Amino acid sequence: MDLNKIENLLELYFEGETSLKQEAQLQEYFTSDEVAPHLAEYVPIFDAFAKAKETGFNRTLELPETKRSYKWIPVAASILLCIGLFLTYNQKQGSANDLGTYKDPEVAALKTKQALFMMGSFMNKGTGQLEKLETFEETANQIKK
Amino acid sequence: MNQNEFLAKVTPVQDRLYRLAKRLLVSEDEAQDATQEVLIKLWSNRKKIKKLRSVEAFAVTMTKNYCYDKLKAKSSSNLQLVHTNYEDQHYNTVKTSENSDSVNWVLKLMKDLPEQQRLVLHMRDVEQYTNSEIAEELDLNETAVRVTLSRARKTIREQLLKKHNYGLK
After folding, report:
1. What parts of chain B have a pLDDT lower than 70?
2. B152, B118 Cβ separation under 8 angstroms
3. How many domains does chain A have?
4. Nearest-CA residue of chain B relative to A19?
5. Distance, CA of B35 to CA of B32 (rounded, Å)
6. Would residue A144 count as lying in a domain?
7. pLDDT tens digits, B74-109
8. B-chain residues near A13 (CB < 8 A)
9. Domains of chain B (ranges plus CATH)?
10. Structural domain includes residue A62
11. Which residues of A touch B23 (CB under 8 A)?
12. What is the pLDDT of residues B140-150, one digit of tens each?
């Protein structure tokens, strides 16, 4: 390679102005066997970089076993709980809409009878109380006279 | 990401991480420890890595921070490891040995540079990162990187020539 060019590059190199490509050229020149005597003093610099690059990580890497994560379990449990609560709540609401219709006509008739009897007995209780009104009327009439 | 995928991603980078750690921590053992530690941290962060543009930049930052922490811990506990690479000067007669001696001298000079210069010089001249990559990694602008680089290189040259001349006289 042209000596002038190398000297130029070297000058730029120390100013930090060389590109990576130019630095590679310098590296190549200075690690070759044909370095001009007056530039020989720069050889160790480039040799040092080359030497520094030779070392590397030499241990075998032991990666820790991956632990199964159980983080999602509480999340799943709470979701299930929510779904459960939602369903039971809905069921209760559904029972309010249930009219309690009987499928079997006989049972239905029986139940109706029962209900009507119950109503009748309540009404009789009511009329029983009405008899007291008669005594009230009698006394009222006596006062009027 | 399983182990093999992870190793495929990390193996091309690990030597660089080691060299960076060694540049900062100096001791080889500590550098190996640091690299191992960083790689295991990367493994436990592998889900994050998947989304990253560059695993290398992330790993380099991690290594750098790890080493800084180590250095801080070391200086606060007042424990200083001194690594001397001085070699016996008496066998300077053969040119090759003189050369390798000078190489070690340059490596020692690199150790004596201020941290920032050492990092920039290492990343540029050993690992061939671009200035913009270095700038991003070290949170500097590119001009600052260039200036730092120039200073580091000049210091090395000066010290080397000084030693050279001293040897001659």
Report:
1. 76-99, 166-169
2. yes
3. 2
4. B130
5. 5
6. yes
7. 776 655 555 555 444 444 444 555 567 788 888 888
8. 153
9. 3-76 (1.10.1740.10), 89-168 (1.10.10.10)
10. no
11. 52
12. 999 999 999 99
Crossing angle, helix A20-30 and helix A43-52, to 10 degrees? 110
Sequence-ordered list of residues with C-beta below 8 angstroms from that of A50, at least 6 positions apart, any chain = A27, A31
Nearest Cβ partner for B125 among A41, A49, A64: A49
- With a CB cutoff of 8 Å and minimum separation 6, the contacts of B73 are none
Q: Is residue A130 part of a domain?
A: yes
∠ CA A130-A134-A137 to the nearest 5 degrees? 130
Q: Note the pLDDT tens digit of each residue in A1-27.
A: 688 899 999 999 999 999 999 999 999
A33, part of any domain: yes
> Which of B19, B125, B130 is opposite residue A55, by nearest beta carbon?
B19
- DSSP count for chain B of H helices, then E strands: 8, 0
Domain that holds residue A41: 3-52
Chain A closest-CA separation from residue B43 CA (Å): 7
